[in-house]
Design a protein that fits this description.
Largest sheet: 5 strands, antiparallel
Shape: globular
Distance between the termini: 23 Å
Helix content: 25-40%
Number of helices: 4
Number of strands: 5
Radius of gyration: 14 Å
Strand content: 25-35%
Structural class: alpha+beta
Order of helices and strands: EHHEEHHEE
Length: about 110
């Protein structure tokens, strides 16, 4: 089974208090187990999110069962994921270049150490 790496970017509302709340929701002790399960069930093997100022970077390792379309369908059918996504919208905002309703945008790899 070979893994593939995908990277995404999203922006947070540029408000220190909201950013701290967002970080708290993503702490190990506050992560919703239903969300963690839905992530793993979609074929995501590993996920890390990094923060710089109000910009988020998400790095995912996925297996061959993962597709963004399948993940989107699974999320749409899961009421707990929808609750989470609605909650996160108060903290997140679309990055430059996003279309209506988009928040996590794929990043283009421009360099890899040979």
């Amino acid at each position: 089974m070979s893994a593939k790496r995908l990277c995404y970017a999203c922006d947070l509302v540029d408000n220190r208090e909201l950013i701290e709340q967002y970080k708290s929701y993503h702490s190990k002790e506050n992560a919703w187990p239903e969300i963690t399960k839905s992530i793993k069930d979609s074929g995501i093997i590993d996920m890390e999110i990094y923060l710089f100022a109000n910009r988020l970077f998400m790095i995912m390792e996925v297996n061959e069962t993962y597709t963004p379309e399948r993940k989107q369908e699974m999320d749409a059918a899961n009421p707990k994921v929808q609750e989470w996504e609605n909650l996160m919208w108060q903290f997140q905002q679309a990055p430059p270049g996003a279309k209506e309703g988009e928040k996590w945008l794929p990043m283009e790899q421009i360099y890899k150490l040979p």
